[in-house]
Amino acid sequence: MPDVKTLAEDQGIKAVQDITFGSISGILGKVIEYPFDTIKVRLQSQPHPTIYTGPWDCFRQSFHTPEGAFRSLYRGISAPLFGAAIETGSLFFSYRIAQSALQTLDPSLPQGKGEKLPLKALLACAAVGGATTSILLTPIELVKCKLQYPVASSSDNGILTPHHRRGPLTVIASVFRNHGILGFWRGQLGTLIRETGGTAAWFGSYEAVLTALRNRSSLNIPPHSPSHTATDEISKITNPMSHQLLAGASAGIAYNFLFFPADTIKSRMQTEELAYPSSSSSSNLHTSVNQTKSKHTTFLRTASELWHQQGLKGLYRGCGITVARSAPSSAIIFTVMELLRGWADT
């Protein structure tokens, strides 16, 4: 029977690796995808009638802002980088912990080191991990969305541009002053739906595609090769980086497409004070909330109004560019994670 102290030390090491490696891979993925995420948020949260004809028009307007294209597209990235580290590290950590807990509760499941659980079990574990992470993620995404949202000013002929001299601390102070501590969890239901279902799709797609590629490649291994009797060797031969990249890209597409409407509603809720400012402070971040309290106060009310204004198209506005940026970003996250794990095991 394994020594309890050894098992505890091993679990502790794995936890540190999950959080550290997940944070690193998440940050790298966020740097790649952030400009596209900015465009997505601006498309999702624009008021009615819309001010952008599509992603390319939004890109074009971003390139013609006084602050320049780079600052416009990367504005507010500090909070998302922090969020990406927390989100990805938490997802990988909670995903593994959920698997360990499920194995403990159900001895009939595979218990050997390196053995994969059935896909249904992996989906359930991923959903638990996503739900847990959503609690940490909502406040960070609220700050991010407010920083990304463009607001018209009288000095730029009505062209929508981000607030000048705005930073994460300014937004945090404003939210706390106007709504208190619970204000940071505005849009939590949308984040919960997206992260619970999306994370199940994310890990599930990765595992399913990787398994399919492994099985396909194993058919090409010679029958008498030692690889047929060594699970670790099979994994090394049939899971090259190209397989990890492809599986990771598939996971990113599944995560973003399936639950995109929940993300759209969340973004709209988190930016409504900027989309419907009071007349007395239309260019000030410290917006009065009296006018907005009677508007999109709940997830369902926001969804209903968006549906009546823009229909299904409104719920999926920005989905194309989101899926396009999520494929390379997710591919990088999983590949870097696997590389770091492999480096740590050597």
Secondary structure class reads: mainly alpha
Number of strand elements: 2
Strand order of the largest sheet: 1-2
Question: What oligomeric state is this?
Answer: single chain
Task: From the alpha carbons, calculate the radius of gyration and give it in angstroms.
Answer: 22 Å
Strand percentage lies at: under 5%
- In whole angstroms, the N-to-C terminal distance is 25 Å
Q: How large is the count of helical segments? A: 12
| Secondary-structure element order, N to C | HHHHHEEHHHHHHH
Shape: globular
Please bin the fraction of helical residues.
Answer: over 70%
Name the poorly predicted regions: 153-165, 223-238, 279-296
Give the overall pLDDT as a whole number: 79
Largest sheet: 2 strands, antiparallel
